[in-house]
């Protein structure tokens, strides 16, 4: 199956763990297949023990779509997506690394504006959202609760 996604997946297990805890997908400069990134989320959550509620999976997929799309739009080089399920299986950390040093800025709310609402969605669907500068760009991360209580 040939597409624009060069995927490097690895199942990381802690000693004694039965479920995969991490998956990394790396894209070259070509536009990534967002649908494939979303499938990576659903596949990992399915393998990581008890599957979360459908809404939680959909929220995680939406966050992945927004963060990867932002990286492709605003960064000049390759980007990577890393998904980490916490050892206790209660949360999923989604991290997108790109080559731009510019940290994301949440635009002021404007219902009349077309576009520019993605980070508002990410922040509202996650229990934690942050960006970390790196020597060669940045990491943008969001953590989703996998508990039945859902997000905050």
From TrEMBL:
Residues 33-142 form the Histidine kinase/HSP90-like ATPase domain. Gene3D superfamilies: Histidine kinase-like ATPase, C-terminal domain. Pfam families: HATPase_c_2 (PF13581). InterPro entries: Anti-sigma-factor_SerPK (IPR050267), HATPase_C_sf (IPR036890), HATPase_dom (IPR003594). Keywords: Kinase, Serine/threonine-protein kinase, Transferase. GO terms for molecular function: protein serine/threonine kinase activity. PANTHER family: ANTI-SIGMA-F FACTOR RSBW, ANTI-SIGMA-F FACTOR RSBW-RELATED. This is Histidine kinase/HSP90-like ATPase domain-containing protein.
